[in-house]
Amino acid sequence: MSFLGWLAALSILFVVLERLNPWRREQHVYRKDFWKDLFYLFLNGHLVGIALAFITPSLLYLLDRALEPTGLSTLLSMGIVSDWPFWGQFLVAFFAVDFLQWCIHNLLHRVPFLWEFHKTHHSIVTMDWMGHMRFHWVEGLIYKSLLFVPLTLLDIQPEVFLVFGVFTLGVGYFNHSNFNVDIGPLGFFFNNPRMHLWHHTHPSCGPVLCNFALNLSLWDWLFRTAYLPRGIFPEEIGLATEDRFPDSLWEQLVYPLRLRKGRGDGEESRRQPA
Predict the structure, then answer these.
(1) How many domains does the chain have?
(2) Nearest Cα to 207, choosing from 236, 182, 227, 189?
(3) The dihedral of CA 255, 111, 162, 98: what is its sign?
């Protein structure tokens, strides 16, 4: 099955799971920003993927030609794990790549310029599985750009990344879902809705700069950025008033790209130590 096939299958699965056993029972399927999130699902799950599939080979070719005189292209072609078996490459992606993504997510919150793009994801005020796909398209490019060198050095095979990508998509849907399940002690290893909802908490309802995990909550527990009070969830999620995020879908798409005086103002008030 292709990635788009898995995207559709997992989307249907979580629609059903949220209806069978919702965590927040008062929350409806058709809620605020439903159509916007449906657009982001189509944009980030379909259109951006197709565009990257077309342009990535050309960009890699141009980069290789540009680096050839410096000798760096040979260095980047080391292929550290390219000869490893499938399961070995998957474990590298499972741990090493996930840790790198955790670091990038951390940067998105701490660097004001990057936060301007990440605001789109944190503008969610009603959390369900579809919220996983609400992010600015530039954020995807940021992840891919910062991961380019380590992934090139590792040279993990495409079929491994397909499996890892489907796994990450499923975990992302799960983390954002309104599905009522407590994974117990596994929560010290895997990310889950109980933890990730607190990552999205409104600054007036709890700490920020916590629970940066994508797949593995292990990193948050190790680096003391984990926060998980038992038996409760935030009264409100979303951005601080100072973050000034537009409501219009078109404005959301172009807003971070505009250079304006005072960019990042108010972020210091939001980003208090967890």
Answers:
(1) 1
(2) 227
(3) negative
The DSSP symbol for 130 reads G
| Distance from C-alpha of 205 to C-alpha of 201, rounded to nearest angstrom | 6
Residue 221, phi then psi, degrees to nearest 5:
-65, -40
pLDDT of residue 29: 85
| Domain region containing 193 | 3-270
| Contact assessment for residue 198 and residue 228, using Cβ atoms and an 8 Å cutoff | yes
Three state DSSP letters for 174-187: HHHCCECCCCHHHH
Q: Supply 116's token pair.
A: 């301007």
Spell out the residues 6+ positions from residue 197 whose beta carbon is closer than 8 angstroms to its own. Answer: 127, 233, 234, 237
3-state secondary structure of 116: helix
| Amino acid identity at 59 | L
- Phi, psi of 250, deg, nearest 5: -60, -45
Specify whether the CB–CB gap between 191 and 172 falls below 8 A: no
CB 214 within 8 A of CB 181: no
Burial 7-27 (b: 16+ CB within 10 A, else e): beebbebbbebbeeebbeeee
Instruction: Report the interhelical angle of 137-154 vs 48-67 (nearest 10°).
Output: 50
Cα(15)–Cα(129) distance, integer angstroms: 8
Regions of the chain short of the pLDDT cut 50: 261-274
